[in-house]
Amino acid sequence: MVEQITKGIKISVDTTFEGTFYKNYRVHFAFGYRVTIENQSKDAVQLTSRFWEIQDALNELETVEGDGVIGKKPVLKPGETHTYNSGCLLTSPFGAMKGYYYMINFTSTRKFKVLIPSFKLNAPFALN
C-alpha cells in the first residue's frame, strides 16, 4: 500500500492482479486498485475531478481524466473517508499509475490539487 497526504487529504492505494485475457488478438493484464481518500483537514471538501497517468513496461502511456470517481463526487467532512475500487488494463505484466484529484474546500471555496502517489502494478507470476 502507498500513501500520501496533500493539504490534509490522505490518499491510500492498494493494488491487486486480476488475471490475463485476450482482446483483439492480444494478451492483456488486468489490475484492480482500491483508493481510500481520508479528510484529515479541518474543512469539508468535495472531490470534483480526477487525472491519471497509466504507464506499462512497454512505455505505452495512457491518460484518463474526468468528473468525479466512478460516477460520484464525494463530499468529505473532517475525519470522513471515501473508498472506491477501480481497475485498468495493461499490455505488459508491469506498470505504474499516478495522478491527482481536484477538490474544492467548502470553507475557502478554493479549488486545490491532491496528489495520488505513484504505485506499481505487477503480475505476481512475472516477479522473480
Automatic annotation (TrEMBL):
Cross-referenced PROSITE patterns: APAG
Top-level taxon in the UniProt lineage: Bacteria
Transmembrane segments: none
Annotated ranges, domain ApaG: 3-128
Matches recorded under InterPro entries: ApaG-like, ApaG_domain, ApaG_sf
Protein name: ApaG protein
